[in-house]
Design goal:
The chain is α+β, with helices and mostly antiparallel strands and about 80 residues long. Helices cover about 30% and strands about 25% of the residues.
Length: about 80
Amino acid sequence: MKQVRALDITTEQGFRDAMKWTKDQLNMLHDGGVWVIPRSFSAVKVISHSKLEAEMSGIKREPGIVAMMRALGWKITEGVM
């Protein structure tokens, strides 16, 4: 598995790179698809691409991913794991 480098979202370029990376991750999933984030034992489940709705569940939430998804227009709700 390829290691993903940390993106510095405090810079303009880093923020743009993080937005693109997050969008690419979400675009790989169909409705009902799950993106598992091992480092935090959490997951994002795409409810609807057309409505930009997703659930996040797990032990530790990923605030950076939630922030990126919200910046992309996604509504994130709390899911159960």
